[in-house]
Amino acid sequence: MVIALIGNQNCGKTTLFNRLTGARQHVGNFPGVTVDAKTGQMKAFPECCVVDLPGIYSLRPYSGEELLTRHFLLQEKPDGIINIADATNIERNLYLTLQVLEMGIPTVLALNMMDEVTGNGGKIDVKGMADMLGVPVVPISAAKNEGIALLAQTMVETAGQKQAPHAISYDAEPIKRCKREIMSFIQPVLKEQATPLSFCVTKLIEQDQEIVDSLHLSAKELEQVESTVARMERQCGLDRNAALAENRYAFIERVCAKNVQKAKQSKEKQRSIRIDRILMNRVLALPLFFLIILTVFWLTFSVIGPIGQAAMEKGIAFLSAAIDQALTAAHVHPILQSLCMEGIFSGVGSVLSFLPIILILFFFLSLLEDSGYMTRIAFVMDKPMRKIGLSGKSIVPLLIGFGCTVPAVMSTRTLPSERDRKMTILLIPYMSCSAKIPIYAMFSAAFFAGGKAFILFEIYLIGILISLVAATVLRRTLYKGEAAEFVMELPNYRIPSMKSVLILMWEKAKDFIMKAFTVIFMASIVIWFLQSFDVHMQLVAQTGDSMLAGVGKFLSPLFRPLGFDRWELATALVTGLTAKETVISTLSVLTGDASLTILFADKIAAFSFLLFTLLYTPCAASFAAIRREFRSFSKAILIALSQCLVAYTVAFVFYHFASLVMMFLA
Predict the structure, then answer these.
(1) Which of 318, 296, 289 is nearest to 377 (CA)?
(2) Helix, strand, coil: what percent of the chain each, to 5?
(3) What crossing angle do the helices spanning 437-447 and 603-615 adopt, rounded to 10°?
(4) Is residue 413 pLDDT above 60, yes or no?
(5) pLDDT at position 539, please?
(6) At 194, is the secondary structure helix, strand, or coil?
(7) Cα–Cα distance between 420 and 47 in angstroms, integer?
(8) CA distance 380 to 276
(9) Which of 129, 263, 357, 648 could disulfide-link 305, Cβ–Cβ 3.0 to 4.6 Å?
């Protein structure tokens, strides 16, 4: 039995999914957490599968998530639907409910956050609402695990008995007459369709092109539909979509007037209003945002992070020494011992030592997300984002890009406009992902120890500024036009859930460790092999005679104009195409215990290398995600090459400009 979980964005859908299935999907206090369908087995009823669909406001395909949800309902035909609604904002949530009921699929309405309603003096007559809507209604609190067992039981019974929603009549007379007439002359055609009759009729009135095309109506039948709808529009005094929307909201008002006693303004709402007077202030909003992020970087890279990193390095060093002694005592062949110690331990260990820094950074970012602050940033950024041709909603994928490019690219499916979606995808790689943090941290410690947090903040800020320039260019060339209108619900500020924060940290740690012991592990072995042998498969006495050195020396002249031409650096940049962490593992294998300072003439050259690392082509997984979204390998190649060109140009300009300034100051 397959149960679809549907609801508006930010209504607690993913939290309910976790309660029903025991899964540990990340829960965020901002829209767009679910960008793809997630599946889990219901704990109480193992024979039932729950599919968590993206949050939507309508079944009209304005965005990728609405298209995905509607396609699932029409093509996969689930046995039942749990429609979760935010009980604190019931009027808006019921608009989607009325569209879901037209599907004719067994449905249960779950009223979430009922604890907040009752706690603030509100009341909902659940039985009265169920009678008016024609489906079972169950009050729940997903966050507090209240009513979940009853909801699961009700859904299984409703779906098992194939209990479709009872027919309810709420249409105004002109709309009712219009639907009846359309149904009368297209019913023979619809008998051959699996799509529900009432849903098809509504979509014909709305001119939903996908549904119209699927029905294969003749030109005469389509003309009859248009004639009937035109008459309805004249009688209502509104166009078709406005008439249907007004009709639905009129019924929702009657349902709420009879069954809902509105709560007083909650303490959470009052608190949010007070906080927003400061954080959303027209003058202070952006400076405060930058101050908060700078504080996060300072705490991560200069205060807390180095403590965890030092402890991890000591642990790795202790384990490395113990294994080295064990291998020596066991008289293991020197080549194999070199592979283990100089290849695997040096490469993987150098990357693993940065795990505490990554966890701490995501701890702070998760706090900001769960509190509801990240959604505010999207709202605040809408006006400046429109100047570069994007809406504030694009800020959400861009912010996700600071974690990882792959989910950030996937999250663009929540954007309503194809233009905005593709333009945002092209900008995401300039948001420095967490895989680059070890590179920045190692270089900052080696060259800029006195101001690590500022250097890190500067690197991230440069990435943002470059993305703004790129957006301006794209807007005037490939993606002319205006951004889609931006509507986003601002949730109340909430105290972050430590469980959700810890789940996110665990997921990041797991991904990082898995990458360390797969991609980086294999890369370290390959790098060790290439730097230990020459083209004749002879063990080399000096690394400079190895196969790896040959490749690096061939490429290194390309980077001489950027201020660095050591073959080790060219090799590290090439291996970084697989995963950005391998830049550090490569340099660790090639330099051994030597400091990075031997590879650069000065700090300017080192920073030029950081700029190139920031901006050039992301990892192979990111390339695959971009290729999938653009549905073109050739376009993905062009995008990757353009990113390399941007990286080269920025690093070149910086190096020569900074060198001239230093010469002038000297």
Answers:
(1) 289
(2) 65, 5, 25
(3) 170
(4) yes
(5) 79
(6) coil
(7) 41
(8) 11
(9) 357
Give residue 618's identity as a one-letter amino acid code.
P
Q: How far apart are CA 579 and CA 562, in angstroms?
A: 22
CB 260 within 8 A of CB 90: yes
- Contact at 8 Å (CB) between 78 and 105? yes
Residues 88 and 261 sit within 8 Å (Cβ to Cβ): no
Q: Return the amino acid letter for 554.
A: F
What's the pLDDT at 438? 84
Say which DSSP state 483 is in: P
Choose among 379, 375, 348: nearest CA to 527. 348
Q: Is-contact 430 467, C-beta < 8 A?
A: yes
Q: Which residue has the tokens 């779950």?
A: 110
Name residue 555's amino acid: L
* 406 contact partners, CB below 8 Å, separation of at least 6: 621, 622, 625
Q: Which of 519, 541, 521, 517 is nearest to 531 (CA)?
A: 541
Instruction: Specify the residue for token string 């690197």.
Output: 459
Across the range 30-52, mean pLDDT stands at 77
Cα(401)–Cα(433) distance, integer angstroms: 6
- Token pair belonging to 557: 């002249």
Q: What pLDDT is attached to residue 506?
A: 81
Could you tell me which residue, 31 or 157, shows the higher pLDDT?
A: 157
Place of tokens 């920031």: 614
**β 38-41/49-52 pair status:** antiparallel
Q: What is the pLDDT of residue 192?
A: 61
Nearest to 549 by CA among 536, 530, 563, 564: 530
H or E stretch covering 149:
helix 148-160
CA 173 to chain centroid, in Å, comes to: 44
pTM metric for this prediction: 0.69
Query: What's the sign of the alpha-carbon dihedral 240, 241, 246, 251?
Result: positive
Name residue 81's beta-bridge partners: 4, 107
User: CA 626 to CA 620: how far, in whole Å?
Assistant: 10
Residue 131, pLDDT > 80, answer yes
Which residue carries 């299935």 as its tokens?
Answer: 21
Beta carbons within 10 angstroms of residue 661's beta carbon: 11
Q: Is 282 exposed, middle or buried (0-12, 13-18, 19+ CB in 10 A)?
A: exposed
- Burial category of 588 from C-beta neighbours within 10 Å (exposed 0-12, middle 13-18, buried 19 and up): buried
Continuous H helices in 594-632: 603-615, 620-630
Task: Give the C-alpha separation, 303 to 409, whole Å.
Answer: 32
Q: Could you read off the pLDDT of 620-653 as tens digits, one per residue? A: 778 888 888 888 888 989 999 999 999 999 999 9
Interatomic CA distance for residues 315 and 118, integer angstroms:
52
